[in-house]
Amino acid sequence: MPQARPRARPKWRLPVEWLGILPFVAFALLFLILPTMKIVIGAFQSPDGGFTLQNLIDLNTDSIRNAYWTSIKLSLITALLGCAVGFAMAAAVVFGGLPKRLRSPLLTFSGVASNFAGVPLAFAFIATLGPAGLVTLWLKTEFGINLRAYGFNLLSFWGLVVTYLFFQIPLMILIIIPALDGLKREWREAAEVLGATWAQYWRMVALPILFPSLLGTFALLFANSFGAVATAFALTGPQLNIVPIKLFAQIRGDVLGNPNLGYALAFGMIVITGLANVIYIVLRTRSERWLK
């Protein structure tokens, strides 16, 4: 009886299905992971390359504390207003009886506007609401309304709030509409059968279910605003004392800059935005579990 030949071992081959994500892996490695590691390491290095905690200690100065507080206040205000206005607009489209044909243009615009930032956004607002902007001059010549006389200045804290809302509100719309779509019609019908009013349904059924998603989106909008730098710098320059602008001043390489202190500033931003994103992911997961 012939002896069976041992089965040849399959040769190792490159899993072709993984080749498609190689560009993403390379991009994340070069522009996310390695720069983050450089920032974290640099935050604990002295100018001569030794280990030190002095960079973190130097964050406890009046100027830097004020910068962090201004950035946190800016992020809280824009996240709160973005959530409120964006939720109202999304609810109006999903439940408010508006024509269904408005939904697709709104989502398309929100997708574009949520990514429209930096120098182009700053220029657009300066050309529209700046001291010599189109709307500013139109209100002054046609209605006698002088925005500067009423205390509005685009190149200020509240001007930056208005500018940030241009991308905060659309981002809220994009995130919250799927959550609103997840509210089951049976829940509303059951509430109506039991005698609940529309307000009672929202207060006792819909909002408690949406609360994790709303709070998570608020955390995401906070992180989105806290990390924005190009729009703020292009709009206000060094006039506004916020962390991204102070960070830019430290790492741009002039004789007054301290790159390692800049790394420490960036490390603090990473910690704050990282916590906000972790809160968003946890609450978003909990909300999706409720809506399934």
Automatic annotation (TrEMBL):
Family, similarity comment: Belongs to the binding-protein-dependent transport system permease family. CysTW subfamily.
CDD domains: TM_PBP2
Name the UniProt record assigns to this protein: ABC transporter permease
Main location: membrane
Natural source organism: Tabrizicola soli
UniProt cross-references to InterPro entries, sorted A to Z: MetI-like, MetI-like_sf
Transmembrane feature ranges: 21-44, 74-95, 116-137, 157-180, 201-223, 261-283
Compartment list: Cell membrane
UniProt-listed PROSITE patterns: ABC_TM1
